[in-house]
What does this fold into?
Amino acid sequence: MFNYIWAGFFIVALIVGAAQAIFMGNTAILGDMVNSTFEMAEFSVMSIALPLCGVMTLWLGLMNIGEKAGAINVMSRVVGPFFSKLFPEIPKGHPASGQLVMNFSANLLGLDNAATPLGLKAMQSLQDLNPKKDTASNAQIMFLALNTSGLTIIPVAILAQRAILGAANPTDVFVPLLISTYVSTLSAIIFVGIKQRLNLLNWTVMGWLLGLSALIGGMCWWLSTLSREGMTLATNIISNGILLIIMVGFIAGALVKKVNVFEAFIEGAKGGFETSVKIIPYMVGTLVGIAVFRASGALGFITDGLAWVCGLFTERTEWVDAMPTAFMKPLSGSGAKAMMVECMKTFGPDSFAGRLSCLFQGAADTTFYIIALYFGSVGVKKTRYAIGAGLFADLMGVIAAIFVAYLFFF
It folds into this structure.
């Protein structure tokens, strides 16, 4: 499926670009399309792969220390009952369970720099359990679907961008954003659960989901009572504090067990460069295809067409102004962020479209980027229904964001 989507980016972009050049006399667009390929190829290596190499080296080293200290096994036992229902292919007590928890925890706290290497480590462990190395396993698909749903409790980057652009109350999107991203995550679990015929109505799964719902609800209520400065301070303390506790805890635990900490770090860190180099072809191919599609103007035509169709049935088309962010989010995180900023600049950060663009940015994650990154790192070529699951979660997050925006801001 990914093969056809990737080829489709180039074919549609070429058709749209050629049509504009021939019928509208806009010959410059062809040059823009070609330039976008070179710019994105350089960006993929210089701004993604190489910086990721350093972060990967650090966190794979720390993860190896945590494994030798026994911390990963402890996490596996704690979440084992829950993950045994969502990931029945993972053996009881396997380190992959703890690695999954680490990745999900980093995502919840908005720690993207930590979440990516932790996720790559977890994906490698799942690949070790995968009997068909070129085909995505059920566990890998569930893992990818949960990652693409983008559940984040502390959306620091979005709140900061709203403050920079002069929003009267930058944190007013906080609770609506959490609701939207939570709907996206639940949709991912339900979609994959049905495809894999998992029993999601058992007490274990329902108990964990209700507990997580209560945790998110309590976090929403507490943070919503704080001032803008107070919320910024609290989120920074929570996210950075937990990260430091994990790092120090792993090292301290290893020292207690008389592990040679530095040797353990070096042993794990060696895989950082190798993994970063391995994903470069996948990153370049995926992001270049997206860049050409965007530069051709195809995305703009889709948005304009949607606005025209919606205008035939209803006068409430305010949400269409924010849709470029929703369209771009599954394709490119940086592109979606640019669309969000552009929307807030055009309509104002406190406008309906400006706020809704923030919800779209936080409701889900970059499906195609994540799939290319994680599957590319372990050599999986047959993704089965992973893309469908991710896009379904994205769609549910977009729909939820629209309804929540009308509820809170219209």
